[in-house]
């Protein structure tokens, strides 16, 4: 796949994003505000998942291992 196809594909994806999110009908400053808010929310979700999902997985593992009678030798 050459650079032209990748560029066309990325521009097509961006166009689809604009159509689906209705950004195509917004003014440029509204588009930038919308994209900034959307990017901020996405970054917060990714950060929260990165920080808290491992903790919840560990707690769930400990809970279910106690129920099933499995005792891990891994210390916390």
Automatic annotation (TrEMBL):
Its main location: endoplasmic reticulum. GO terms for molecular function: serine C-palmitoyltransferase activity. The chain crosses the membrane at residues 37-57. It is a multi-pass membrane protein. InterPro entries: Ser_palmitoyltrfase_ssu-like (IPR024512). Coiled coil: none annotated. Keywords: Endoplasmic reticulum, Lipid metabolism, Membrane, Sphingolipid metabolism, Transmembrane, Transmembrane helix. It is found in: Endoplasmic reticulum membrane. Pathway: Lipid metabolism; sphingolipid metabolism; Sphingolipid metabolism. It comes from the Eukaryota. It holds the Pfam family SPT_ssu-like. GO terms for cellular component: endoplasmic reticulum membrane; serine palmitoyltransferase complex. GO terms for biological process: ceramide biosynthetic process; endoplasmic reticulum organization; sphingosine biosynthetic process. Component of the serine palmitoyltransferase (SPT) complex, which is composed of SPTLC1, SPTLC2 or SPTLC3 and SPTSSA or SPTSSB. The heterodimer consisting of SPTLC1 and SPTLC2/SPTLC3 forms the catalytic core of the enzyme, while SPTSSA or SPTSSB subunits determine substrate specificity. SPT also interacts with ORMDL proteins, especially ORMDL3, which negatively regulate SPT activity in the presence of ceramides. Belongs to the SPTSS family. SPTSSB subfamily. Component of the serine palmitoyltransferase multisubunit enzyme (SPT) that catalyzes the initial and rate-limiting step in sphingolipid biosynthesis by condensing L-serine and activated acyl-CoA (most commonly palmitoyl-CoA) to form long-chain bases. The SPT complex is composed of SPTLC1, SPTLC2 or SPTLC3 and SPTSSA or SPTSSB. Within this complex, the heterodimer consisting of SPTLC1 and SPTLC2/SPTLC3 forms the catalytic core. Within the SPT complex, SPTSSB stimulates the catalytic activity and plays a role in substrate specificity. This is Serine palmitoyltransferase small subunit B. It comes from Erinaceus europaeus. The gene is SPTSSB.
């Amino acid at each position: 796949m050459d650079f032209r196809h990748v560029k066309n594909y990325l521009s097509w994806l961006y166009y689809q994003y604009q159509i689906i999110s209705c950004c195509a009908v917004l003014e440029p400053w509204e588009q930038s505000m919308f994209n900034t808010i959307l990017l901020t929310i996405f970054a917060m979700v990714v950060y929260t998942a990165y920080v808290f999902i491992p903790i919840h997985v560990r707690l769930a593992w400990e809970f279910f291992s106690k129920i099933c009678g499995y005792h891990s030798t891994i210390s916390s």
